Amino acid sequence: MRSLFVMLVLTVSAFGYGYWDIFGFGGRVPSLSPPSAGMCGASVPDTSSAFSVFTNPSALTGINRLMVSASGWETGWNEIITYHYTCTEPHRDNLGGMIPRGEFAVAFPVWNGISAGAGIAVVSQYDMTATMQVYREVGYLHRELYKTMVTDATGSLNEALVSIAGSLGPVNIGISPGVRFGSGESTTFSNRVSGPDSTIVESWDQSEFALRAGASTSLGYTVVYSSFVSGDSRYMSFADIGVSASFPFLKGGYLGAEFALYDGNWLKGTAFARLPGVVEGSNIYMGIDGYRPEGALKTGLGFSYGGDYTFGNYRFSAAYQLQSRYRDASGISTDYINHVFDKGETVMIGVERVF
Q1: How far apart are the first and last CA of the chain?
Q2: pLDDT digits (tens, 9 = 90+) for 45-67
Q3: Distance (Å, whole) CA 201 – CA 22
C-alpha cells in the first residue's frame, strides 16, 4: 500500500479536482479577483483594484487613493474516472465541494507615482474526498475488483505578499514578494475485496518564498501586459503575455487575448471581454479558454462570466468560472484506467472601497 501511495505522489504532476490531485498540487484557485474570474483568470491590469497585488502588480502604478479589497468564493468539483470496458464497474464519479475561502488586499500611493500594497489569499485547496478502484486481470477479457481506495484530504496553501509598483519610462512594473505557506493531511483507506485492509495518514507542512510580478504599457488604444508567478513543489509556476484593446465604441470596455504557460510547458490560451453594462456604473465580464496539460486526452475548456457595479466609493463584483480537463492514463500509475475527466465550478463575490 505504501509503495502505491509513493508512486501516486511521484508520477502525478497535475493540478485539478480529483483523487490524484489530493497528493500533489490540489485544486488551484483559478482566479484571485472576481473581475479576473469573469474573464477566465486573465491577468489584464485592473487599475481600480487592490487585488492587483495578486493578479498583476503593475496595475498599482500611479494610484492616488487608498484601496481596500476583499472577496470570498466556493468551489464545487466533479471527477469521472473511466476504466477499461472489461472492468466490472467501468465508471467512477467523485464529487464534492470545497470549504469557502477568501482573500484580502490593500493598496495605497507612496510617492511620485510609486505605490505599495499587501494581501493574503488562499491559492490552492485540498478539501476533497475521492474514491479510486484498483483492478486485477483474471482472464483475457475480464478484470475483477482487487481493492477500493478512499482518500479524505483537508488543507490549503496560502500566500501573504507585499507589493511595490512604479514606472520605468512608458512601462509600468510591479512586484509582489512574500511567502507561500500552508498545511494539510490525507487519510487513505485501502479496502481489499479479500485480505487485510490498511490505512495510511500523510501530513504536509510548507513555507516557501513566493513571487508575483507584472509589467504593462499603453500603446494607443491597446495595453500590452505580462505577468509571472513563481512555483514550488505544491504550486505550478505561471507566465503569460496578453493584449487588450479599448476602442471608443466600447465606452470604457475592452477586448483581449492572452497566452500562458504553466510550469513552463502547459500552454493555455484565453479570450476575454469587459463590456459596459445596461446600468450606468456597471460592467459585464466574459471569457473562454483552452489548455492542454500533460497527458491530455483532448484540450480542456473553460468559460466564465461576471459583472461589477460601482456605487460611490464602493465596487461590488461577482463571477462564475468553470474549468475542465481531460487526461489519458499516461500520467496515472493505476492499471486499466482509460481516461479521467474533472472540472471545477467557482462562484466568487467581492467588495472594494476607495478612501
Answers
A1: 57
A2: 999 999 999 999 999 998 999 99
A3: 13
